[in-house]
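Late entry, glycinamide ribonucleotide complex.
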Amino acid sequence: MKQIVIFASGSGSNAENIIRYFSQRNNAKVVRVFTNNSRATVLERCERHRIDTHLFNREALLQTNEVRNALININPDLIVLAGFLLKIPSAIISSFPNKIINIHPALLPKYGGKGMYGMHVHKAVVSNKEIETGITIHYVNKNYDEGAMIFQVKCKISSLDTPESVAAKIHTLEMQHFPVIINSLLND
Ligand code: GAR
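Prediction complete; structure with ligand written out below:
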């Protein structure tokens, strides 16, 4: 059984979708969800699914080995960033080469980088009158949103779209594709 670890900072709809997907399969499972946010809804979702969680603060991630050591103990096959808003330190990246992936709610390299997350991305996409957007799943390296691309899928935007309606389209794409891509990486 392959082991998946998820990092999430907020709602955790992707985390829950991945938990559900793999709870119905026997090749892999989500073994722990890491979060830096004690008020994150992802914690309630994990409780409902009886998934272990690890709450840490920014300093523990950036200035100590707490998180890295916890990951080394688990020895996961894949570390999935699903709405995780802090930068992963290089010590963790080098301990898990090609094992950390992220989902971004836009067509990278557009609309990536520091501060570009969640609704900030969709607002920028709409105010620039883009005619399409999408999701990008990519490996994580030491720069925000710059690791090698694994998968992209697009959706159209019309002049009637709002940041909220774009967010809904992106959510649908994420729910549909993210677990499937994770599964294919684990089976490679
Ligand atoms: C997702 O749309 C994800 O792509 C985005 O945050 C949302 C998290 O939602 N990630 C980023 O913007 C990273 N730069 P969730 O907590 O409901 O899964």
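The mean pLDDT is 96. Will revisit in the morning.
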